[in-house]
Write a structure and sequence with these properties.
The complex is a heterodimer.
Chain A lengths: L2 E12 L4 E7 L1 H6 L5 E5 L10 E4 L2 E4 L5 E9 L3 H7 L6 E8 L11 E7 L6 H10 L4 E7 L8 H6 L3 E6 L6 E2 L3 H9 L7 E6 L2 H13 L4 E4 L15 E5 L5 E5 L6 E3 L7
Parallel strand pairs in A: 8-9, 8-12, 9-10, 10-11, 12-13
Antiparallel strand pairs in A: 1-2, 1-7, 2-6, 3-4, 3-7, 5-6, 13-16, 14-15
Helix pairs in contact in A: 5-6
Chain B lengths: L4 E3 L2 E3 L3 E3 L21 E7 L12 E4 L2 E4 L8 H14 L4 E5 L4 H13 L5 E5 L10 H4 L2 H14 L4 E4 L7 H10 L5 E3 L3 E4 L1 E2 L4 E2 L5 E5 L4 H14 L4 E4 L5 H10 L3 E4 L1 H5 L3 H15 L14 H6 L2
The chains are: A alpha/beta, B alpha/beta.
Amino acid sequence: MPIDVAAEVIANRALSVDYNVLTLGAPTIAASCAPGQFVMVKSSSRRDPLLRRPFSVFEVVRDSSGAATALTILSKRIGVSTRELYEAKPGQTIATLGPLGRPFTVVEPPTEAWMVAGGVGLAPFATLAEALAAKRVKSALFYGARSGAELFYLDFFAALGVELVLTTEDGSRGEKGRVVTPLDRRLGGRPPSSPLMLYACGPERMLAAAARTAATHGRPCQVSVERIMGCGMGGCYSCVVPMRGDDGKFHHVRSCLAGPVLAADQILWT
Amino acid sequence: MDLAVAIGSLTLKNPFIAASGCFGYGVEYAEAVDLSSLGGVAVKGLFLAEREGHPAPRIVETPAGMLNAIGLQGIGVRRFVDEKLPELRARRATVIVNVCGTTLDEYVEVSRILSDAEGVAAIELNISCPNIKEGGIQFGCSLNGTYDVVSAVRKATTLPLIPKLTPNVTDVSSFARAAEDAGADAVSLVNTFLAMVIDTETRRPKISNVVGGLSGPAIRPIAVRMVWECRQAVKIPIVGMGGIVEARDAIEFMLAGATAVQVGTANFVDPFIWPKLVDGLSDYLRRHRIARAADLVGALDSDSALAGP
């Protein structure tokens, strides 16, 4: 069951002029969340901006005994709310509701895991990479950004033994171009008999391309979708994704309850 | 202290009702909220058949509010009765079902099915959704249409009948009177205000339906005024709504003439709002030495306001 915590900002670290990592003192949520779940946050009690914003739980912060003390969110400055989060000061409180949504299904060896991230879509993969490492699942992160300056937490993933495959749109680091290009190439070179799960999060067009690529190579793919979300609890019906149902027909599915992690091959990509 | 209020034959344990379209079918909140602690739960609007609604994006935030055009996505009345109502009953929720129709016959049929089901406390007749062409607004924007649909459903059910009125008319109080004349037990108002937001970079509307309904604190003063106007036009109870985010706002509606209130958008921001509203109302009554919440209804001191300083 989700809880609402008036979480203290423990730290706010700017990663670039647009990206920041906010550490929120919400240990109860941090302790009970699974990779892929999200929180709804609101940086003030004011009426404007009114609604909360959804964020994947980025990291679970633990003390020396392993107990969860806080969680972090990875935010990209886009509008008023994300600007407030970028400028948040330690000590202020941020209403944090969670954990919400359905998490990733974490595979077991010998299945390998390839994560595909675009930009701020890196967010759900830090906790997933930890969960995969704990199960000794061999993993790789295909990670694309606009430039090398916007590729974050590479050391974090490398330390977990995650193989990094990097792309940038400007070619300043890794391969120049889109992240799905090396994904497609590597999938083509992999024997179909070796089991593999894909996980993807990022801009909608990247997700659609990753889903298409996964389908082409006959690989299952779990995507974490991002939608404009009013409540995160199933009340408002704003965050729907068109999906193929068991009856073969299309249905609008609430990504806050059925997702945010959804099976890529059931989504009707536009 | 007595927080109970009466809507016709229906007694609510407190004036706070979760607004239709803002609380799913109630069951979504059953783990987080004690549904029996609410005055009522108005579930999402139901037609006979399932509907998928509009494509996303369906909402956009606006200054102190939001615009929505969901398009009345819903599972249809029969699935609601089979799949949702039993849990709502088990959790002792006071269930108010929002009834939609594309034709007069559909309103009657959906209402009849709900009347035959166990556990429905009242029917809220949705003649005011601004977001779908064929969904009741043609009834809600015409005095004759309002009278006809309320009369027809009145003949089909003995459940308390609460037409939900649109604010997108010149004089909402005349619609309240038409509903009263046709046998409504109460009216609820306001539904959302038809509105529009444009992305100036792309020159495209921000939601897929182009236009949608505005809700939230931004609309509250208009909604309060409309409740106050209706209070003078009809004798039946009024269920007031529009941008209530705290007890003070609800009290404002009650002073203007609302017997009960609905809370919608604020539930998105704070799903745990319900006990806070109840506590806030209790505090107010205690502070003003008022024994019953019902004593607030229409207790506006308009004479001194008119007299001026």
